[in-house]
Amino acid sequence: MRYLLVEDNRELAEAVIGRLALDGHAVDHAGTLAEAEDCLAVATYDLILLDVMLPDGDGRDFLARSRASLETPVIVLTARAQVSDRVGALDQGADDYITKPFDFSELEARCRAVLRRRGGSARNQIALGAALFDPLAGTLSHGATSVDLRNREIRLLEVFARHPGQILSKGQLMDRLFSYDSDVTENAIEVYVGRLRRRIDGMGVRIETLRGLGYRMETDTA
Prior knowledge:
Rossmann fold, 5-stranded parallel β-sheet, 4-stranded antiparallel β-sheet
């Protein structure tokens, strides 16, 4: 998944990016609201982590202004612990909030919870035809067979799982899997798709290639 982190504390930002990267997430960093707007103008994100006090304004005001056109889920990062501050953030369009200082495991859990709710699920597991995909455990199970996926394979399958039957171009997959500073080409997508195909072989899930268009995930009905 691809996240946008809007945070002016460089040390905290690097720590958050490093932690999320361990799970295979791509994270773009903006230190100001202006930089965040630039990122949103050219990329699509699965989740935004938004600080409140930024050098060029209040993250909550930015959220309130953007919510009419911004469908991406937002978790507000705030050092303010008062109930009124948290309620205000939620009323202005935040999907959740977390109070600084926070434990990284809690941040990860809140990210997963927000993405599950946006996907219409209360569980970590995603049904793919007759198979069961667990992004948290990194497993895909079909009957008595279960395979463990690597981080990038997990995120790639998660992208396909959240867009069933939809054609996804190599560019769209790159946008979801890699941040701006990643030195990769579209050939990397071919490599990861090939690896994922081998992992899911016989699991009731297929990734089809549509020449000149991209890839599409299909699932068996039985």
